[in-house]
Amino acid sequence: MENSIKAQGKKSKRIFHLETPFTTPKWPKLTSEEEVVVIELLCSLFSPIGLYRTTHVPRSKGKRHKRAVKKASETNNPPHDASPPPPPVLSTHITLGINSTLTHLQNLSRHSLPATYPLHLQLPPKPTSSPQTPPTHLSAIFVPFPDLDPVLRSHLCHVAFTASMTHPTLPSTLLVPLPKSANARLANALGVPRVGCVGLMETAPETGPLLEYVREHVVPVRVPWLDKTTKYLPVQIGVEEKEVAGGKGKQNAGKTGDGKDKKIQESQQGTKRKLEGSLHTAV
User: Fold this and answer.
1) The model's pTM
2) ∠271-276-281 over CA atoms, to 5°?
3) What pLDDT score does 254 carry?
4) Per-residue pLDDT, 251
């Protein structure tokens, strides 16, 4: 009996929600053996850059120390024209850090925008570069952070995909995830304190074995709804029915309303009696 009463008190309610047609791109994965091979190839490739930095690029100890050293050298020793050798050619064909890599990808993506794209939504042109010459294509981006922020990871996938559209004849830009332990090894090989990510340009020398191995084992990131061949994607409306307790609220509301009406009637009757009493007294 109680169950039947409870069943009568429950009502079903329809809840509507929108389902986005824009799918989240999948982050590529590598096995532990493949990660070891990629890390070894990267360290052997970047070791000349780290050797040059540790030998010819002094570490900064602050502006005050730099001014003191410059003043002492001017007073004690005559100026000399000994200049360090030029850095390795590879150092000008990589992007070091997440900020420089994203900036390079955004500059590439600017050139892949369709002609019908709204002008107020386009990125502002870079003053130092000519809009007719797009930047160099990035072959691969190595990210030694498996626990990268989901928003940053999704943004990196989207901008890497749109940047690849600028050079359709070249292979797509690959996102290569690496374990967190690779950060220390890459930083040591590059001669820097920390590595957020490293982008490798298509024109980088001596990268044939590395790119060949990466393109064989890493799947390119695909964003179907950003593809030019994609048609209109309608928004789907999802409907979900949930059981909610009904009847009690209305009953309580009705009781509360009846109580208020009775109080109003009683106050009106009391006011009427007072007025009649005052009239009799006046007479």
Assistant:
1) 0.67
2) 125
3) 47
4) 47
